[in-house]
Design goal:
Layout: H1 2-27, E1 40-41, E2 44-45, H2 56-85, H3 87-110
Antiparallel strand pairs: 1-2
């Protein structure tokens, strides 16, 4: 029964996503306004070339920020139930923070936190 249920859930997900995209494309307003295709930032027209390459350091820094920002999504619920769960929750969060600390140490060692 387990594999049949998995197949049904997978097919239902594919059908629902494909159906939502199809209906969205069917009923959405289409506009061929030339201004729609112009690149802009903050409502202002761009100055200079719009296809500028960024250094990979920006992406590494952004990914590291996301990793340590998303960790709060796990720490806040943990803090809410900490007193109810007790010592097990403390051990789990120490392991979690230890793994994140290892990731931070690795990034630091590789120089991903240096702004060059």
């Amino acid at each position: 029964m387990g594999s049949e249920a998995l197949i049904v859930f997978f097919l239902a997900g594919v059908i629902l996503v494909a159906g939502a995209n199809f209906i969205s494309n069917l009923i959405s307003h289409k506009s061929d306004n030339p201004q729609k295709r112009e690149p802009y930032e903050s409502g202002m027209p761009t100055i200079g070339p719009t296809w500028v390459q960024f250094k990979v350091g920006f992406y590494l820094f952004a990914i590291l920020f996301l990793i340590f920002d998303v960790e709060m999504a796990f720490i806040v619920p943990w803090a809410v139930v900490y007193q109810e769960v007790g010592t097990v929750a403390l051990v789990e969060i120490i392991i979690f923070l230890g793994i994140l600390g290892l990731g931070l140490a690795y990034a630091w060692k590789k120089g991903a936190l240096k702004w060059k």
